[in-house]
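Notes on consecutive records. When two proteins share a document, each keeps its own sequence and its own token line. Never mix them. Below: protein one.
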Amino acid sequence: MSHGDLIRSDWHDHDWQLIHAPAQSPNLHMALDEVLTDEVSAGRRAPTLRIWEWADPAVVIGRFQSLRNEVDAQAAQRHGIEVVRRISGGGAMFIEPGNTITYSICAPLSMVAGMSFQQAYAHMDAWVIQALAEMGIKAWYQPLNDITSASGKIAGAAQARRGKAVLHHVTMAYDIDAAKMLEVLRIGREKLSDKGTTSAQKRVDPLRSQTGLARTQVIANLVAMFRRQYGLVDDTLRPEELERARALAAGKFASTDWIGVVP
């Protein structure tokens, strides 16, 4: 059966689970996305919203990005920032544990059946845009994978379709050290150099300045919106999921072969 033959399902057709575990390493997060997406694909896990907590700072590059082009490896090392590569596409994300809000949605492929990538991103982001509106931020989806506001970009999304599941992954800037970000991410510099670096703050506008809310409160508001709209049951990672993810984190995601798969 091709994807086009799938009957499209809606958010309300599924029993959503929430996972919000204590802080984990960047590579374990990469691995959990793969494991949980595969579990949803196999029908062993219900569709899941996972809120991430970061144990360490990181730069997360997209599956198809060039490591060299995106990241200044020396600057990353100097700041103690780990470089990891995820299984979904999209751009590089600069992560600091208290300054970032990250979540992923592992859903049946039927959620995006017959949709273009652009339609799928817009569909998967709609609830967040509504949650932001309730916090006083007029935000909108900007193709292909940004959520932005009048003050600047708020979040970047990435997607992967694996088996019978879709992974939709979003990183939001709660607060940001723009100077450090520009040292570590090369692409940011190029985009800004022609405009003068003063526009660094304008390009990414953190939720902290726009909402005045604590990071934990922003997360609570996002979860509350999802729960109200679609229903959400608190869940935990199963021992076998965690075991598989740990093995993948060490064997695949920490390997130089994977991180440098596009040099």
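Protein two starts on the next line and is unrelated to protein one.
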Amino acid sequence: MKKDMKKVSIKTTIILFLFLGCLKGFSQTKNFIDQPYLETTSKVDSLVVPDRIYLSITIAEIDTKGKVSVEKLENMMEAKLQSLNIDVQKQLSLADMSSNFNRYFLRKTDVQKSKEYILLVYDAQTAGKAIQGLESIGIANVSLLKSEYSKIDELKNILRQQAVKKAKEQAEMMLMPLDQKVGKALFISDLNTSVYNNFQGKVSGVRMSMEADNYEPIPIDFEKIRVESAITIRFAILE
């Protein structure tokens, strides 16, 4: 009998504890809702010049009609890039391991090899010089893959801070005619931080003329990357 009473007492205590917990949560929610507050949404954005540009380079014996081997083209490519002050050890890499074994099967007795590389450069002018330089030695299969901004995460955080500051300023301006003031933030929602990169394989302002012996790209960068941050904040209203 005593054991049954003890079990009932424990169950009652647990139920009471859960009930009080729910009641407390409801009370907090109700108190938050009952507080006078103002909700505002703000957006900020920034334009940045990409500082990491990736080029795809394919060297293939078929491009020289089999007259120049992949190995020789590879050596010529490295020499040309080094002449442009490009660190091939750090900035040039194979696209994948299988690139060493890519082949074009033209006829049973005619097998011609190819390799695909990824070249990283840091500005549009160097990209243009690399493309023109490779074309000058017979490597014309070069394309622009993508562009990036190396400090994108740092920029996102800065924009979030600016968005919060802008939201508070908006709230203060809205309450000013009412002779009321902005209190503490009751709720913050990071709606979205987006990166808009319209780079689609084109270099803005980098023009090449194979006829010109003294080629020099004009000093215009890639199209800028736009980063946008949007937040919503609810501020308490102070009388």
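For the record: The beta strands are 37-48, 52-60, 92-94, 103-107, 110-121, 142-148, 181-196, 225-238.
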